[in-house]
């Protein structure tokens, strides 16, 4: 690495303002190439750079690959081919012209004529409408992959021919003959054109049309192909050089012998082998042993990332980290050999002379010489006295140097922290304080840290002021404290602050060394002891743990958090004082951050940690398996309580199952007595629960409610000395559920994914045998289960084989499947959309692209965070915050019983993606008016569901029969066949159906002509009625059924078939209740936000989720739903009800309502992940995605839409996001330019990003010097105001001269006359020194504009007066013109030259004088540029213009 630093490399410098894309032309390729390749073996010629067998570049003579970047070759083709990039454009052009006459196809509707270059007959058989039946239209398109690899143009007839007819023989006469044309790919209605044939067709097309479509006609043809340098095609380095597949593709093109289409296929194959176009390897390729890290196998995005986005530096290190509680929080322990290897550039000055001189002297003794940078070049130094002030010296790392630490992956802003170096005598690890593991999201199980050494003074200052640990005390995601006591120190604090902890004087003095410098306080307990040696009473003093802890706090420390009172640095409350040290909304750390500087907070935490760790080491603390044995004396009682608790939980779960529809008959008492026991059989309930995810979810929720009470038994049976319990109470480590599973019982276990088998009720051998016998009694046809069970044993007591198997099945880690990469994908997408958003200097939130406005002001919530500064990259902070919640959701696996927070968050963020299929839903909230009645919300929800939910006729019909009735058939024109639909009276009553409403619904559908026409169905006239029983059955008073009859009115021979095949299916699909637009309605429960402080009695509310039916029009679903709710309008709160699709919200309520809906759903999704995020982050995400007036999808299309709305061209950023090759080709074809305004653009191309410390701002400097304000006399000021109010009499004389009456007006400008002698010389000297001839000419233009800007006798504005006054000073008779002094300047007419305009100067004495600006300009030019003056005089003063 030292050689890298001390190598002088000549690097060209410049300021990059942007990049422009274009397709490489043949002329540019020939200019850039150094050699024409004519032999296949020359593709690795030494003239193309390294690597090559000659070990020297034959073009530039370089002998090292570092000084030679390679050179381009050129391959000439034997014939011209179409450019592969422009094949779609060529096909579009061919479709716009007539292949026969080569004219643009005429639009008969608009009757537009297009001029043709070629003289063609007036009637063309291809474009004239009269010949279309014989000469059908044709369509040109790019060939499929199997035909020359999508490199040929195919033309085919666009209309299917009538059977028995064929195309006329001269239909393909427009296609020129070409010997290279292959007939194997052609057919009677299709031709595959060669490139020469396409050229012959296009050469007669109007050149102006081709130029407008392509820019240049020649760029669609290709006669040569550039050959990339050797270094771009190397797959491996070693003794035997290996080139990649592109080298073999280049060899195929040299001296090619084949058709043009085959050559084009070779070209496109070579282009696809480019690293930037390579596709991502599939999973199968990776499993076959192919190395994904091989450069030749690298896909496009990875190539862009490693070549362009990734930056290499020699001033960095990477090592495994360990914890060291005795180094400060803002320090990092670096091994001594790493510190000696890492170099820091520092400029030598008088303040650091001794330190740098000693360091360089040691380095010279070790290596004989060192290098410094002096005046931009490297200079070797062999003696210490050769150093000079101003030299840049490269020295090793010292204590106190600042380094940037990164713990990958960098998914949040606090993964980058600047720490101070502390060189330690260790060899192989870095050391950090354990308290900073929280911001780094790391631990000490092998995590590595990356370190970067800043080399400039500016970077060191930025690290210290922006990302140092004392500047990152607050979590930018949640606004809470970032640092706190944890693990051992937090456990020690809990134990120290408990009652009964005392210290004698030696112990207290030993621990007082780690506290702030305070006097020891009075002891809490004083005992008198008898001393036998002196025979008097001595005192034994004891201090409490709280007193010792108070020594760290200051006397002005007053805080009250979580029930803990601290007054003047002493604990006042006695209820769990350690609660103020745990994580939460309010704690001791928040008070420290609010009232102390960052360095002081770090000192507090370090003092706390040193004290607690030292005391814990003195006291001793260990964890063993003995802590799992809660109580040996009362073990039996504990087991009994656990067993009874599990039985109660099981009863609660089964009771929850009885609330569903399947068991309503039991609840209402409608079951026969002999069936009641079977309905409540526990085994059957267990089986039913495992067949449905919804039932399992309800049962699991009820079971866990009771199981929480079982967990609390831990506190009753665990001893005070239990180490596990101490850590749980302290909040430092451990999980209550896992503790219960080890010591008491494993508890409820359920599978995260559906399985093909189910579990028995009890987990024992007897239960398993009974389970196998009972399987035959359960319903068949069920092949998917959601198994669950309760393991009553604990891990400590041991599990039987069945329990162990069930525990393994239900806790396997395969629940995420293909969703493990969702969080990383969301993070990448959000960063691309939001990383360029920053706070402008006017307080608005803008984007770097086009300076587009995103927010008028950045909403700052009440948190510990300071107000965001100008230039703050708030977009990146918001993206990191949301992504951190997504990563946190990985701890909650996807389950069949619970909604996945991760998938829910993904669904919310991708709401802008428009889906053409799938279910649409809407959420309806109940009106608050319903709370006036008891259970009003419950009854209201049921009424709304019954009103909307679609109920088909077939859902209530239990039997359909067709009877022959000869009596009915006797009537004229009436069919004797009658169809009976049997409906249970009980089912109709349960569904709240009336017979007449059913009949009305059937009749309405039969008369709906629009629906019949849409179904293309001819329905006969029907007679629909109701009967209590069929005609063949005797009447039974106890009959529980009713019958709906349908009969065809007009009799025919096919009436039976028509009734059976058409009428019955048609009527069964009738919607007899509810809305045809609604598939189903679910009644759900929504919890109120935890942060809500509204005075509600319950913790949530009921709402309804409405699902769209398959027949409903997707775009109008919400409008139809509102129309269907007209009758129940008062029962629904329409201000909160909304469609669940953002697109529907925009259509129905506008973009502002959609933004608020997105924000509320995003907050809910974030809350489900268990993370806390500041509201300004969520609001910024909503505003960023909706800044264009609609929610854009977070994909490549959405990014393109967002940039287009900003009027910003950013092909490089879009290429880094997705499909780099396609983005670059599209930009090159359109000639797009990229100003590199974004962050990723600037960093990739060596520019400073336009945010943060590099954000845009304007410096406005006034040349006027600051002057001390003169004291003002109040009385004179008042007298002036009085004088201004006095009336001024003005008299106008006949000679048009004004005189003032009471008081002379003040002069307009202060004027000092030049001395009589030498005044002209002085003016000439001043003008020549400060003013040029061009300045005088610009002044002339301004004066002319001012002269004709105003009306006659109109006064000039203040700015224009100043310009005219400057010109007057340049007049040859300025003193005479000015006279007593200027008072006003206006535009007027010359008194001697009629309507000629000039400037009028009104003097303070009331007189007026005119002056010409031409004379002023001529006099000034005469003084500084005589030649220009003569030209000006000949043009303006003598009336001659040239």
TrEMBL record:
<dbReference type="GO" id="GO:0003899">
    <property type="term" value="F:DNA-directed RNA polymerase activity"/>
</dbReference>
<dbReference type="InterPro" id="IPR007083">
    <property type="entry name" value="RNA_pol_Rpb1_4"/>
</dbReference>
<keyword id="KW-0862">Zinc</keyword>
<dbReference type="InterPro" id="IPR007066">
    <property type="entry name" value="RNA_pol_Rpb1_3"/>
</dbReference>
<dbReference type="GO" id="GO:0046872">
    <property type="term" value="F:metal ion binding"/>
</dbReference>
<dbReference type="GO" id="GO:0000428">
    <property type="term" value="C:DNA-directed RNA polymerase complex"/>
</dbReference>
<keyword id="KW-0548">Nucleotidyltransferase</keyword>
<feature type="domain" description="RNA polymerase N-terminal">
    <location>
        <begin position="218"/>
        <end position="497"/>
    </location>
</feature>
<dbReference type="Pfam" id="PF05000">
    <property type="entry name" value="RNA_pol_Rpb1_4"/>
</dbReference>
<dbReference type="InterPro" id="IPR042102">
    <property type="entry name" value="RNA_pol_Rpb1_3_sf"/>
</dbReference>
<keyword id="KW-0479">Metal-binding</keyword>
<dbReference type="GO" id="GO:0003677">
    <property type="term" value="F:DNA binding"/>
</dbReference>
<protein>
    <recommendedName>
        <fullName>DNA-directed RNA polymerase</fullName>
        <ecNumber>2.7.7.6</ecNumber>
    </recommendedName>
</protein>
<dbReference type="Pfam" id="PF11523">
    <property type="entry name" value="DUF3223"/>
</dbReference>
<dbReference type="InterPro" id="IPR000722">
    <property type="entry name" value="RNA_pol_asu"/>
</dbReference>
<dbReference type="InterPro" id="IPR040403">
    <property type="entry name" value="NRPD1_N"/>
</dbReference>
<dbReference type="InterPro" id="IPR044893">
    <property type="entry name" value="RNA_pol_Rpb1_clamp_domain"/>
</dbReference>
<keyword id="KW-0804">Transcription</keyword>
<dbReference type="InterPro" id="IPR045867">
    <property type="entry name" value="DNA-dir_RpoC_beta_prime"/>
</dbReference>
<keyword id="KW-0808">Transferase</keyword>
<dbReference type="Pfam" id="PF04983">
    <property type="entry name" value="RNA_pol_Rpb1_3"/>
</dbReference>
<keyword id="KW-0240">DNA-directed RNA polymerase</keyword>
<dbReference type="GO" id="GO:0006351">
    <property type="term" value="P:DNA-templated transcription"/>
</dbReference>
<dbReference type="InterPro" id="IPR006592">
    <property type="entry name" value="RNA_pol_N"/>
</dbReference>
<dbReference type="InterPro" id="IPR038120">
    <property type="entry name" value="Rpb1_funnel_sf"/>
</dbReference>
<dbReference type="Pfam" id="PF00623">
    <property type="entry name" value="RNA_pol_Rpb1_2"/>
</dbReference>
């Amino acid at each position: 690495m030292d050689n890298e630093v001390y190598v002088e490399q000549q690097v060209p410098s410049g300021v990059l303002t942007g990049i422009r894309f274009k397709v490489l032309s043949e002329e540019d390729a020939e200019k850039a190439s150094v050699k024409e390749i004519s032999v296949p073996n020359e593709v690795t010629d030494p003239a193309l750079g390294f690597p090559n067998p000659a070990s020297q570049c034959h073009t530039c003579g370089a002998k090292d690959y570092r000084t030679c970047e390679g050179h381009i070759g050129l391959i000439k083709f034997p014939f011209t081919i179409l450019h592969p990039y422009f094949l779609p454009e060529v096909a579009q052009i061919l479709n716009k012209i007539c292949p026969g006459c080569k004219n643009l196809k005429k639009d008969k509707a608009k009757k537009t004529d297009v001029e043709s270059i070629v003289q063609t007959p007036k009637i063309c058989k291809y474009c004239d409408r009269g010949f279309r039946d014989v000469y059908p239209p044709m369509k040109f398109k790019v060939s499929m992959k199997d035909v020359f690899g999508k490199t040929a143009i195919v033309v085919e007839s666009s209309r299917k021919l009538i059977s028995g007819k064929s195309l006329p023989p001269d239909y393909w006469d427009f296609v020129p003959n070409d010997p290279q044309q292959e007939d194997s790919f052609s057919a009677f209605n299709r031709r595959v054109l060669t490139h020469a044939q396409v050229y012959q067709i296009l050469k007669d097309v109007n050149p102006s049309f081709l130029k407008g479509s392509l820019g240049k006609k020649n760029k669609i043809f290709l006669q040569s192909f550039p050959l990339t340098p050797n270094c771009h095609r190397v797959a491996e380095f070693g003794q035997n050089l290996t080139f990649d597949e592109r080298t073999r593709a280049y060899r195929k093109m040299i001296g090619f012998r084949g058709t043009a289409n085959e050559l084009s296929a070779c070209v496109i194959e070579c282009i696809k082998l480019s690293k930037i176009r390579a596709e991502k390897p599939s999973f199968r390729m990776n499993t076959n042993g192919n190395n994904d890290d091989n450069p030749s196998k690298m896909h496009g995005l990875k190539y862009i990332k490693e070549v362009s986005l990734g930056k290499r530096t020699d001033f960095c290190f990477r090592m495994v980290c360990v914890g060291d509680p005795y180094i400060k929080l803002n320090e990092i322990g670096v091994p001594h050999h790493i510190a000696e290897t890492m170099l820091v550039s520092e400029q030598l000055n008088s303040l650091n002379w001794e330190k740098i001189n000693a360091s360089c002297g040691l380095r010279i003794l070790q290596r004989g010489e060192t290098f410094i940078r002096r005046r931009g070049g490297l200079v070797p130094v062999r003696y210490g006295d050769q150093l000079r002030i101003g030299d840049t010296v490269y020295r090793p790392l010292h204590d106190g140097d600042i380094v940037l630490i990164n713990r990958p992956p960098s998914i949040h802003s606090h993964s980058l922290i600047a720490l101070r170096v502390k060189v330690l005598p260790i060899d192989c690890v870095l050391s950090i304080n354990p308290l900073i593991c929280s911001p780094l999201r790391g631990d000490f199980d092998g995590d590595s840290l990356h370190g970067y050494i800043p080399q400039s003074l500016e970077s060191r200052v930025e690290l210290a002021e922006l990302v140092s640990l004392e500047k990152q005390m607050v979590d930018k995601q949640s606004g809470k404290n970032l640092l706190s006591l944890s693990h051992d120190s937090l456990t020690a604090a809990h134990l120290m602050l408990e009652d009964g902890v005392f210290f004698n004087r030696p112990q207290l003095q030993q621990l007082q060394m780690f506290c702030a410098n305070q006097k020891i306080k009075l002891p809490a307990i004083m005992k008198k002891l008898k001393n036998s040696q002196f025979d008097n009473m001595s005192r034994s003093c004891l201090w409490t743990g709280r007193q010792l802890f108070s020594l760290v706090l200051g006397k002005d420390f007053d805080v009250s958090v979580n029930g803990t009172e601290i007054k003047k640095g002493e604990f006042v409350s006695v209820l769990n004082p350690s609660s103020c040290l745990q994580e939460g909304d309010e704690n001791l750390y928040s008070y420290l951050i609010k009232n102390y500087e960052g360095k002081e907070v770090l000192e507090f935490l370090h003092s706390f940690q040193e004290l607690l760790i030292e005391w814990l080491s003195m006291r001793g603390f260990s964890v063993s398996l003995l802590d799992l044995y809660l109580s040996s004396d009362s073990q039996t009682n504990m087991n009994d309580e656990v067993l009874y608790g599990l039985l109660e939980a099981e009863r609660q779960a089964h009771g929850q199952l009885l609330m569903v529809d399947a068991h309503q008959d039991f609840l209402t008492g409608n079951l026969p007595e002999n069936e009641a026991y079977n309905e409540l059989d526990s085994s059957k309930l267990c089986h039913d629960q495992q067949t449905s995810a919804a039932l399992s979810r309800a049962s699991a929720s009820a079971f866990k409610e009771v199981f929480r009470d079982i967990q609390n038994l831990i506190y009753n049976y665990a001893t005070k000395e239990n180490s596990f319990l101490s850590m749980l109470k302290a909040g430092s480590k451990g999980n209550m559920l896992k503790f219960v599973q080890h010591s008491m019982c494993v508890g409820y276990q359920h599978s995260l994914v559906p399985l093909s088998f189910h579990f028995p009720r009890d987990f024992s051998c007897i239960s398993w045998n009974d389970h196998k016998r009972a399987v035959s009694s359960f319903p068949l046809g069920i092949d998917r289960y959601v198994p669950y069970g309760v393991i009553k044993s604990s891990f400590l007591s041991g599990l039987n084989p069945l329990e162990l198997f069930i525990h393994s099945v239900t806790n396997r880690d395969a629940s995420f499947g293909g969703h493990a990469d969702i969080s990383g994908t969301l993070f990448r997408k959000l960063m691309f959309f939001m990383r360029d958003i920053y706070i402008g200097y006017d307080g608005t939130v803008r984007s770097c692209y086009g300076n587009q406005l995103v927010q008028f002001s950045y909403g700052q919530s009440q948190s510990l965070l300071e107000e965001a500064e100008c230039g703050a990259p708030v977009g990146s902070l918001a993206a990191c915050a949301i992504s951190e919640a997504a990563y946190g959701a990985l701890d909650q696996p996807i389950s069949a019983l619970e909604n996945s927070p991760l998938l829910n968050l993904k669904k919310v963020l991708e709401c802008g993606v428009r889906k053409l299929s799938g279910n649409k839903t809407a959420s309806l909230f109940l009106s608050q008016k319903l709370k006036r009645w008891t259970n009003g919300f419950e009854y209201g929800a049921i009424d709304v569901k019954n009103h909307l939910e679609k109920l088909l006729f077939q859902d209530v019909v239990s039997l359909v029969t067709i009877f022959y009735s000869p009596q009915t058939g006797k009537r004229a024109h009436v069919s004797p066949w009658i169809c009976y639909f049997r409906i249970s009276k009980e089912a109709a009553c349960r569904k709240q159906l009336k017979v007449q409403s059913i009949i009305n619904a059937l009749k309405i559908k039969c008369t709906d002509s629009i629906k019949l026409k849409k179904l293309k169905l001819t329905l006969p006239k029907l007679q629909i009625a109701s009967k209590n029983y069929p005609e063949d059955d005797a009447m039974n008073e106890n009959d529980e059924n009713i019958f709906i009859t349908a009969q065809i009115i007009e009799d025919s021979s096919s009436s039976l078939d028509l009734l059976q095949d058409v009428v019955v299916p048609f009527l069964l699909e009738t919607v007899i209740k509810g809305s045809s637009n609604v598939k189903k309605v679910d009644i759900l429960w929504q919890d109120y936000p935890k942060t809500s402080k509204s005075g509600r009695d319950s913790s949530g509310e009921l709402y309804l989720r409405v699902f769209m039916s398959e027949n409903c029009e997707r775009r109008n679903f919400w409008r139809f739903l509102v129309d269907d709710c007209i009758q129940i309008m008062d029962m629904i709160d329409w201000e909160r009800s909304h469609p669940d699709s953002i697109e529907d919200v925009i259509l129905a309520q506008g973009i502002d309502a959609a933004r608020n809906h997105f924000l509320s759903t995003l907050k809910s999704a974030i809350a489900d992940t268990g993370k806390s995020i500041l509201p300004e982050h969520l609001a910024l995400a909503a505003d960023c995605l909706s800044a264009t007036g609609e929610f854009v999808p977070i994909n490549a299309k959405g990014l393109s839409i967002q940039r287009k709305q900003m009027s910003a061209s950013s092909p490089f950023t879009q290429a880094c996001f997705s499909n780099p090759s396609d983005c670059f080709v599209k930009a090159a074809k359109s000639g797009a330019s990229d100003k590199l305004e974004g962050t990723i653009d600037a960093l990739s191309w060596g520019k400073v990003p336009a945010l943060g410390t590099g954000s845009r701002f304007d410096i406005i400097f006034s040349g006027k010097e600051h002057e001390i304000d003169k004291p003002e006399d109040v009385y004179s000021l008042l007298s002036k105001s009085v004088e201004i109010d006095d009336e001024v009499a003005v008299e106008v004389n006949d000679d048009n001269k004004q005189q003032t009456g009471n008081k002379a007006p003040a002069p307009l400008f202060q004027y000092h006359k030049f001395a009589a002698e030498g005044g002209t010389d002085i003016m000439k000297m001043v003008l020549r020194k400060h003013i040029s001839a061009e300045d005088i000419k610009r002044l002339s233009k301004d004066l002319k504009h001012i002269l004709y800007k105003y009306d006659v006798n109109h006064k000039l504005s203040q700015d224009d007066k100043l310009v005219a006054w400057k010109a007057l000073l340049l007049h040859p008779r300025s003193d005479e013109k000015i006279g007593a002094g200027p008072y006003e300047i206006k535009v007027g007419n010359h008194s001697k030259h009629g309507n000629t305009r000039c400037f009028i100067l009104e003097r303070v004495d009331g007189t007026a004088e005119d002056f010409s600006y031409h004379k002023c300009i001529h006099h000034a030019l005469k003084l500084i540029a005589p030649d220009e003056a003569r030209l000006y005089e000949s043009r303006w003063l003598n009336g001659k213009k040239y």
